[in-house]
Write a structure and sequence with these properties.
elongated, mainly alpha, 11 helices, single chain
Length: 212
Amino acid sequence: MNAQKRHDIFARLQAENPHPTTELNWSTPFELLAAVLLSAQATDVGVNKATAKLYPVANTPQAIIDLGINELKRHIKTIGLFNTKAENLMKTCHLLVNQHGSEVPKTRKELEALPGVGRKTANVILNTAFGQPTIAVDTHIFRVSNRTGIAKGKDVVEVEQKLLRHIPKAFKQDAHHWLILHGRYTCIARKPRCGSCIIEDLCDYKEKTELG
């Protein structure tokens, strides 16, 4: 795929959705961090239902610690893998209080040192909470990047590096959200909805469908 095609793809995605953002509900960097930690192998809708009950009770590292592990588990028990996620979130809260003055750190290295925080989660926080032009490659972005030809790679790190290299600077900040939303609602896993896709004519995917 050439540079002009990539530019046109992101220009169309921008025109359709000028201010994309995460579908997780959050109002502080810590709320976003906690929500992303809870979202692994879970839907954003499911996470939002749990945090809607948790955050009015505890939405800071110290408040989570004060809540205690059992109460934390009770609040998030509707989310898959809630036991492990609760343990990781609690450990993260202790580290934030003890090492970062209860603030979410703004560097990848410090974020990835937190329990349950990998490269993808760190990229989400850096991009969405702190406005850095990072791209968190999840299953949706991996699929869309390979299927469309925007950035082909055999693993998420390769796709991330190619996206950062090839996406025009003007679109880099929001590219993460455009690609996730496109993969979630249009370029879906089993049968992409090519018939209603705004970038169908720019996409390299050979097995186009008529689905709208």
